[in-house]
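Students often ask why inverse folding is considered easier than folding. One informal answer: many sequences map to the same fold, so there is more than one right answer. In these notes we will look at a single instance of the problem. The structure comes first.
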């Protein structure tokens, strides 16, 4: 009898408890499925259903239409695995000789003064992949494409080994420095499918064939992000960077470019 009275609508404590849980659940759903998407994507969400679809991870037509129309391109044909570049003394020495043609843009010791990438201490697999992409035409450049045309596969491996061997001017960020980084770099923006920059480009992790951005020229980083946005650079396999860059605001692109250039 006591149990029947406890779980009865005539019991005000039971009624108010159940009602409170229902109200709390509805409020949480409205915040998570409506308010948060509107806050994260104010210029993309067009209605109540768009907000719910975004929170649930479903693609939006408005997001898909943001991609530039045009013929489908092959991003890259390079398969890179960890530690595929053997950096022995012979390879580094050959790479040092080959690098003499690179000094005008990338500096004598791999540190540029011409708003081109700093290559000293760069991930060897990253340097190798970019050279392969320049040679195949998957990454466009009126300067790099002709220079890469006559390089053998071993030449590109040796250059990658040499530049990875050189010391970087900027040490890896400490945990304290990582915690001071902008949110877009630390945690990204999950509601917009933007992964943290630090999860691939150094900091909390560094993916194979992904360049370290610390100390790179600000104008270079900004130009590459803009190239991913407009599709003129498309050698990112499975469009990872194009998908990320197209969801970033111009202010976020400037913020990321400035942050890494000062590292």
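Output (designed amino acids):
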């Amino acid at each position: 009898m006591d149990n029947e009275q406890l779980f009865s609508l005539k019991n005000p404590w039971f009624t108010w408890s159940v009602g409170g849980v229902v109200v709390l659940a509805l409020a949480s759903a409205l915040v998570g499925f409506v308010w948060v998407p509107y806050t994260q994507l104010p210029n993309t969400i067009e209605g109540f259903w768009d907000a719910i679809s975004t929170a649930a991870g479903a693609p939006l037509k408005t997001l898909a239409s943001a991609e530039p129309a045009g013929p489908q391109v092959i991003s890259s044909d390079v398969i890179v695995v960890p530690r595929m570049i053997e950096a022995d003394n012979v390879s580094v020495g050959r790479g040092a000789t080959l690098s003499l043609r690179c000094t005008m843009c990338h500096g004598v010791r791999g540190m540029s003064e011409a708003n081109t990438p700093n290559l000293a201490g760069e991930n060897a697999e990253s340097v190798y992949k970019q050279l392969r992409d320049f040679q195949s035409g998957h990454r466009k450049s009126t300067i790099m494409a002709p220079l890469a045309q006559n390089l053998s596969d071993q030449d590109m491996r040796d250059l990658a080994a040499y530049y990875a061997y050189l010391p970087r001017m900027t040490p890896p960020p400490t945990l304290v420095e990582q915690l001071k980084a902008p949110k877009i770099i630390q945690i990204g923006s999950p509601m917009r499918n933007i992964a943290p920059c630090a999860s691939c480009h150094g900091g909390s992790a560094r993916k194979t064939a992904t360049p370290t951005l610390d100390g790179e020229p600000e104008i270079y980083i900004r130009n590459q992000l803009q190239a991913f946005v407009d599709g003129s650079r498309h050698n990112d396999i499975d469009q990872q960077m194009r998908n990320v860059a197209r969801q970033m605001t111009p202010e976020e692109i400037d913020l990321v470019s400035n942050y890494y250039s000062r590292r």
